[in-house]
Amino acid sequence: MHIHILGICGTFMGSLALLARELGHTVTGSDANVYPPMSTQLENAGVTIEQGYLVEHLQPAPDLVVVGNAMKRGMDVIEYMLDTGLRYTSGPQFLSEQVLQSRHVIAVAGTHGKTTTTTMLAWILHYAGIDTGFLIGGVPLVDTADAHLQQVFAHSSYLGADKIDNDDSANTGYFVIEADEYDSAFFDKRSKFVHYRPRTAILNNLEFDHADIFADLDAIQTQFHHMVRMIPSTGKIIMPTATASLEETLAKGVWTPVWRTAVLDAAAHNTYATDNTHAKDKHVKDSSDWQAELISEDGGKFAVSFAADIADKEATGVVDWSMSGIHNVNNALVAVAAAYNIGVSVKTACAALSAFAGIKRRMELIGNVNDILVFDDFAHHPTAITTTLDGAKKKLADRRLWAIIEPRSNTMKMGIHQDSLAESAALADHTLWYEPTGLEWGLKEVINNATIANPDIGSQQVLSSVEDIITHICTYAKAGDAIVIMSNGGFEGIHQRLLTALANS
Questions:
Q1: 373/317 same-domain check
Q2: Least C-beta-crowded within 10 Å: which of 29, 61, 361, 491?
Q3: Distance in angstroms (rounded) separating the CA atoms of residues 395 and 410
């Protein structure tokens, strides 16, 4: 059938479009913001993308309209769809009905790290020879000679096998999915991740975000509780230990066994909490089922062990990879635990992660111009900014670190986190904040006041145009520096524009 997707260039909906193509459907879509990398991979897959949300895109009528979360009542295309009685559904409901109901679903939820963790887990399973399907909210980086892995991870989604053994109907296939309480909602704004009905669930962290939809943290915890209520007692929940917001969520009711994880720094005799602070209470280590022990400070090498099976050599392993940051060590640890839950040894999982290249827009090195390294990162929440810069600072310790940040998310635009913004970038040597036209609160005033109150947060300033940011970097950056651009959008094409300007300066 012909499916038209409204909001097709969003990470979830774009991935869904690719799955629909694999299922044999004709897929078209429309979006107000068509930009790479999602638009590129859709076009390469033969999906027709139209600019804007126009009624004529639904003429002649498709068999089904899949409605993305950017849609709102009052939009001409939505009103036309409702008034004419076109058949429509949400992305998650389509996915549930078409793919998930016959699979063992492994869902990755949390405020931060969903995309990275989902990608890691899918990578581990395929490395181990399990033909799992997956839907990732991003585009994987593939740096391997393995032809199978190259093919599978060419896009952000993959259908995979319906059954792991076609001769045994009991052996259902697997599907790894990024489970967001917000991103996959459509215009009625109800959370849709309950459609996934996971058997294994990773709850990575939980902070207040998406303030345009949720009134407070408790409202988000309620959405997570709705998903938890659907996980069978024979399933598994995996989450970092000593995470108060998640423990409060489980206190609302949990019927599924829980594995807790912890990242340990043996050299410093510290245990890291998920917010990258040091947990002072040693019971954190004792209360964790899974542990990752740092071998290198930046998280580039660490050992993994499962306490319940510590005597088994297959239940331990070492990850030695190109990634950095305590947050990524945690992402890796919960992914290893989830893979182990469905039969992959720790040793195999660690070997897989040692060959893992990451994903696009997560500390992705996009250029090296005259020994100035430029990275692209998706961080758009104060905690994510802090953890990303912490990893970058440790990995790039010999370089002066610049952060260029666009407060683009709806929560950022509303000013919900304004009091913590300057502090979140304190680890950078120099920070340039972009204040777009129409921001309803004064970013410049917030940053200026913060730097006066705390001189230890580094050199931070606010600029009101991308051109000014590029000019500033070209004037003051020098060989040996590293620049991290942080935005969850296109950022007016600053990435390539900056690389070009640096090359010509």
A1: no
A2: 61
A3: 31
